[in-house]
């Protein structure tokens, strides 16, 4: 069993330490021989830095590092190119001044390493470095930029700094097009693709391979790669959990597979996979290493629970519309790895439509837990305990337990956070059910109307209708009317389900059908479940 390369982003270190390496050199070769100027977006901790490091060693001609890999016999190792590698993850970006200074310091250091004297200042020094490297080595230069967008992403909560950093990057990147004759290969990676107008206006020859099928597996592990390279770890896992090897594979797939950029080829998050095989515990590995507060706050602000529960259609052109000032939460969720492409559809006019959804159980559980904690104003660490207690009560199959759970959940929410419309309570109920690991279909359309929610519980299909009324309803003259009781709301909910026969589409599933009314009258909560006879 080879060592797992956890936290190793240097290809040379990985190979010299005899760590496990999933051979990506064939797809890398396909990329670096197919053009000169490329951009790739992938979420954090997805192997982008290792990819850049691997490219660096190829262009430097370090053949010994590639012994036994596909590219060893498929590359001319006698030709080398000077490489400039810029890692914005190591550059201070807290202020525009620190970003500018660190950027200039890095350029000066690279020049010093190559015995080059620079006469220009600011962004111009970068262009001068490229020109003089080409002249001194008589070989075109390779420029590899890792985490190009980090000075912006890190400051999205301070848009003034983010925008000033964007301006600095714009000046930096636009020089690359003018240096075209000196460049052998240019490759940029990042998490987000900002509007070309704001960042890449000077790089209109940049080819974005983010959604190209031929490079869909350049980062992450395919199912075949997982089963081949990690076979010994899978066997060990199966023995530990006393299950078959295939059962172990299926559970790993359920938890950590599911990322796609072409809607057909799916990959595992490399960091989650490595951490899982190290600890052999099914839990949140990748999600826990980031800071999801920003995403959670945006989802909470937009009351966007739908993004967790059902597929989201999005037109192809929307992927290029990410802008600092007008952040689309779903585009941000896709680019940061909380949503992925489940499939791609084409209409009669040939226009592409992407269907987005949560990639796997790791992201589903972690994101739901953080959202629930944010809405209920509790610590994320307490969510698992809350989930376990509620599940034990619900599995008894008693509707009253369901009601008590629901009341307990809403009782946790501070008074000032309570919503004032049905959409809020609908969203909170769906979030709560999802947290309890029920697979919920929300707002299901039928030929007779739209069902609020449907899920399976204890071999029963539960069809739910939610009704809400404020504590006091005003009449047409503005006079205070008598409060609507939860009993009246429950009667209306169940009557609607029966009248519109929402249950007909589930009659052939050989499961018992339960009709559930959920009522919110001000802060009074009640529910009633009836078996369909």
Instruction: Decide which structural class fits the backbone.
Output: alpha/beta
Q: How many strands appear in the DSSP assignment?
A: 13
Q: Average the pLDDT over all residues and give the rounded result.
A: 85
**Proportion of residues in β-strands:** 15-25%
**What are the low-pLDDT stretches, counting only 5+ consecutive residues below 50?**
none
Q: What is the subunit organization of this protein?
A: single chain
Tell me what you see in this structure.
This protein is α/β, with parallel strands linked by helices and 533 residues long. Helices cover 40% and strands 16% of the residues. It has 19 helices and 13 strands. The strands form three sheets. A five-stranded parallel β-sheet has the order 2-3-4-1-5. Strands 9-10-11-12-13 form a five-stranded mixed β-sheet, sandwiched between helices. The chain has a three-stranded antiparallel β-sheet with strand order 6-8-7. It is elongated, with a radius of gyration of 27 Å. It starts with 10 loop residues before the first helix and ends with a strand.
